[in-house]
Amino acid sequence: MIDPDTRAADWAADAEADAAEEAEEMPLSLRLSIADALTLGNATCGFMAVYFTTTGILIPHLTGSTETGMARNSAATAVILMLCAAIFDLFDGIVARKLRSSPMGAELDNLSDLISFGLAPAYFVLVYGMVADDAQQKVSAVAAIVVLLAVVLRLARFSCVTMKDGMFQGMPSPFGALTVVSIILLELPFIPTLLAIIGTAWLMVSRVEYPKPRGVLAAAMLSWIVGAMAMLAAWAFDAPGGQFLLQAGCALQVVLGAVIPLFATARRVNTFRGNRRESREARQAEAAQLR
Q1: For residue 97, is pLDDT > 80?
Q2: CA-based end-to-end distance of the chain
């Protein structure tokens, strides 16, 4: 006669042993690290940004709600979520370097970036074209597609092209997404807005070099993102000076997007001139020795 308690204990032990064997046999690529969890937070924020853009801006506009146009609270919430995605994207790289990332970490990062910094801002552009008074819906749809494809190409090239340490080739997709959204929130006339969005998309696929956010630059970027969240919150709740703060912050973001390529181009030109000067001096030195 087998004691029921003994049989239950045996079953529990067998279950624990099977679970341990499954954990040992589980491929390393299926285990999520802390950095991967942060990356999934990035994707979640991007998806929720699309959700708030739809439920808070597009649907009220289509149903003829009294709150038409770019609804302030929902627009601010959607952009804040994109900023949160940028924070997750910043920290998942730091954590991956300090601790470790699973073998699928790079793939997760690209897919999450596509949602948060490709789909979300492109959808924001599309909705802008549908609700803004002076916008043209079909043209805005084309601009949204351009933004999305630029991010797709940017991320694909990042996976294939090896750059020198500490540099990106092309405007990073988080910076590009925030620039696109800032252009829309400035509420400029449609044509300048459209041209600025297309220009930002071009910078993302260009060969202009951008520094990676590490050390002091990472701290500065984090401070800027937190400050932008505060500006958006002040604007959303109609705080005194909130509109001015938002306009100033968006303008600064756009100016940074335009100035960094100029500095990068100037640095490349100076480097080229320096290399050519050194080469000319070396040839002159060789010619002097032959004499």
Answers
A1: no
A2: 108
pLDDT at 234 over 90: no
pLDDT in the model for residue 192: 93
Q: How long is the chain? A: 291
Distances (CA, A) of 287 to 133, 283, 291: 70, 6, 7
Neighbours of 171 (CB within 10 A): 24
Residue 173 CB coordination number (10 Å): 25
User: How many whole angstroms separate alpha carbon 224 and alpha carbon 252?
Assistant: 10
Q: Which amino acid is at 16?
A: E
Alpha helices in 59-119 (DSSP H): 59-62, 72-98, 105-114
Asked if residues 261 and 203 have their Cβ atoms less than 8 Å apart, the reply is yes
Task: Identify each DSSP E strand in the chain by its residue range.
Answer: 167-169, 209-211
